[in-house]
Design brief:
Layout (H helix, E strand, L loop, with lengths): L4 E5 L3 H13 L3 E5 L2 H13 L6 E5 L8 H11 L5 E5 L5 H4 L8 E4 L4 H12 L10
Parallel strand pairs: 1-2, 1-3, 3-4, 4-5
């Protein structure tokens, strides 16, 4: 299986680090950004370099800037085929309840297990990673 390239956009350093570690266990190459502006810029740069991301995990609530819904809208303007996954602890937010309506391909609710992350990647990309199967 080819390695997944995943961009993580989350304002919390601990969350970025944990997601990156879990994604690497699933065999992904991971890039992290702390805010929507830099995340969209990184995505656009990767597109122009011919190294697009297979998936983007976007936190729903990013402090000090664009929220996850605004970020996915900008990502879709750059790449209409962007495979974004909304990530949040607010399970009753409309973006998690009906993620496709907001342009997301999948969703994951914090806290989550490895199996949840694998499922979200599968829904968004059709590939779930080959990690060790840990939950």
């Amino acid at each position: 299986m080819n390695e997944l390239r995943v961009l993580v956009i989350d304002d919390e350093e601990l969350v970025r680090d944990v997601l990156a570690r879990l994604l690497r266990r699933l065999g992904a190459e991971v890039v992290t950004e702390a805010d929507g502006e830099s995340g969209v810029a990184r995505y656009a740069e990767a597109m122009s370099d011919g190294r697009r991301f297979d998936a983007v995990l976007v936190d729903l609530t990013i402090s000090g800037g664009r929220d996850g819904k605004e970020v996915v809208s900008e990502l879709l303007a750059v790449d209409p085929d962007c495979r974004a996954i909304v990530c949040s602890g607010y399970s009753n937010d409309p973006a998690l309840v009906d993620h496709a309506r907001f342009g997301f391909r999948s969703r994951i609710t914090k806290p989550f297990r490895m199996a949840d992350l694998r499922r979200a990647l599968w829904e968004a990309t059709g590939r779930g990673g080959e990690g060790d199967g840990a939950n």
